[in-house]
Design a protein that fits this description.
It is a single chain. The chain has 127 residues and is mainly alpha-helical. The protein has helices at 2-9, 12-46, 66-103, 111-126; strands at 57-59, 62-64. Strand 1 (57-59) and strand 2 (62-64) form a beta hairpin. Helix 2 (12-46) crosses helix 3 (66-103). The longest helix has 38 residues, at 66-103.
Length: 127
Amino acid sequence: MWNEFKKFAMKGNVLDLAVGVVIGAAFGKIVSSLVDDMIMPLVGLLMGGVDFTNLTVKIGEAELKYGQFLQNVVDFLIVAFSIFLFVRVMNKYVKRKETEKENKPAPATDKNTELLTEIRDLLKNNQ
């Protein structure tokens, strides 16, 4: 069982996933800072100086922090849009590489290869 676990844990996919999670966490902090420190103050200014994070509604003893929810929705939209742009750029890059590969001229064959190809084709036609 231990060997199976080591084999699983050392697979490339698991290591790639671990790296992705760590980078995603760091990216999340950057996006949160972008939203909290730059975008939401501007949105609040446009809306008359409203700070969304402090918006609450009190129902009985419960306090609903819908401002924080709005903040998290904006965070999500920015992260989703950023990932969309990144994937779009990567897809264009991959597509361009595939097109370059397809349009790449076939390697030039030497005289011996051409002669052997002709002999093969002649032998095929005679049979």
